[in-house]
Amino acid sequence: MSVYDGKHTGHVSASVQGDSVQGGGARRADAQRNRERILQAARDLVHEPGELKLNAVAKACGIGQGTLYRHFPTREDLLAEVYRREVDELVAAAGRLLATHQPLDALAAWFDRVAAYARVKRDVFAAIEAATWRDLAAHSLGPIGEAVEVLLAAGRLAGTVRADAEARDVIVLISWLSRLDDAELDARGPRLLSILVDGLRAHR
């Protein structure tokens, strides 16, 4: 049989195609890893004094600046995505905590996660344009409010959260955390959140 026979050629093509698919999958996985490293480095560095520099982010995660720019063309794009990811993780935490904790305990544990979110929100919003952070805040309010309502509804059903507690009440109260500096957040944050949990507790 000739190596140019259609059947033989098809076999070679399938093999090459399989290698190409595997190679593409590896490249996508590598690109996703780079993206996660960039976001984590930016999350850490935005907390440092001074303006966040993209070259510092690239250096911190050991990639070239070209790779960083392919993922995030501008500093504002990067910081906006840092905030969006923080919101996504905060929202997802509500369901995970309810799966392993009693409703009121899940709410208290979620508030601990809120304190970390508040630091990121404060630092990111201080580093980006006002129009951008207003847009980010407007789009995140709905998902965060829904996560709060999931936690409150579980507590109301269990009889451990007061019946008149509303998600909007909680959002208003926890929003103040992002206005505190690190010293105040460390000193007052846990106590404030404990007071909030006690205020949401159903009176028996």
Describe the structure.
By secondary structure, this protein is an all-alpha fold. The chain has two domains: 1-73, Orthogonal Bundle (Arc Repressor Mutant, subunit A); 74-204, Tetracycline Repressor, domain 2 (Orthogonal Bundle). The chain has eight helices and no strands. It has helices at 6-45, 54-60, 65-71, 75-100, 103-127, 130-158, 167-174, 182-200. Helix 1 packs across helix 2 (54-60), helix 4 (75-100) packs antiparallel against helix 5 and helix 5 (103-127) runs antiparallel to helix 8 (182-200). It starts with 5 loop residues before the first helix and ends with a helix. Mean pLDDT is 87; it is low at 1-16.
- Largest sheet data: none
Proportion of residues in extended strands: under 5%
Cα-based radius of gyration, to the nearest Å: 23 Å
CATH class designation of the largest domain: Mainly Alpha
Q: How many H/I helical runs?
A: 8
Count the domains.
Answer: 2
Q: What's the architecture of the largest domain in CATH terms?
A: Orthogonal Bundle
Average pLDDT reading: 87
Low-pLDDT runs: 1-16
Distance from first to last alpha carbon: 87 Å
Secondary-structure class: mainly alpha
Q: Could you name the CATH homologous superfamily of the largest domain?
A: Tetracycline Repressor, domain 2
The geometry reads as elongated
SSE string, helix = H, strand = E? HHHHHHHH
Q: Which percent range fits the helix content? A: over 70%
CATH fold-level topology of the largest domain: Tetracycline Repressor, domain 2
Number of strands: 0
Organism: Actinomadura napierensis
DNA-binding region: 53-72
Keywords: DNA-binding, Transcription, Transcription regulation
Region (Disordered): 1-32
